[in-house]
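pipeline stage [seq->struct] | target=Hydrogenase nickel incorporation protein HypB | organism=Cellulomonas denverensis | residues=273
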Amino acid sequence: MGRFHRHDDGTEHSHDHPHEHDHSHDHDHPHGQATALQGPEQLAELIGDHSAYRTGRERIEILEDIYAENDQLAAANRAALDAAGVHAINLMSSPGSGKTAILVRTLAALRGELRVGVIEGDIETPLDAERLSGLGAQISLLNTGDGFGGECHLDAPMVARALAGLDLSTLDLLLIENVGNLVCPAEFEVGEHRKAMVWSITEGEDKPLKYPVMFRSAGAVLVNKMDLAPHLDVDLDLFRRNLAAVNPDATVIEVSARTGDGMDAWLDWVRRR
């Protein structure tokens, strides 16, 4: 037991208080009176000056160590992929942007050309993995609610576990469909070689400014649901300017997962090693 003491100059030390006090002394308090000392001056005299003591919680930054451990395992994942000759793309987006629909078309187009594996990340359910089945790709389902606490992103340890469900020696390309979220997925390396993201025109032109880490991390930004453009009040030039403000080097590819328009440009980007 003790108190932690910090001075204004930043020096610190502690005061230990042994528990060998004699509490057997008498307390002579008149009836109806809590203490013989009354008022702030008498109270200060009793307790002394403890103004330099601080109580409460102190925030300690530990994120650097967490990311360092994740990045080490991400490097190990990448090394395993490199050893097997597999190129990995981490595909990210907000929920409902059309990632899975784009992957359906991607797998159908690459079938017979490239041997593809997919790590399908979702908090719960195999629904998206089931949509991708039957298209010639190996699928490894990764539910972050299953032993991972329902995480809103994939990280390197999760992907390492999912890689064990794939035969890397028989693959050329690995597509990692990350959990739908515009924040956390961009902060965690998982062993990919490149990152891409999907932004749908229903989401608002300000998203690159609101979520710069995500848009800055992507090598390619797929602008999806272009078939809805005639029916929406969307300013694509404004979106491009906002994107250029945070990531001027991103490749912008306008697509429609529903009609297939623009998919050739996306496939060309995927084929690049």
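stage status: PASS
auto-comment: Strands lie at 2-6, 12-16, 87-93, 116-122, 138-143, 173-177, 194-200, 220-224, 251-254. Residues 1-5, 17-21, 27-37 have pLDDT under 50 and may be disordered.
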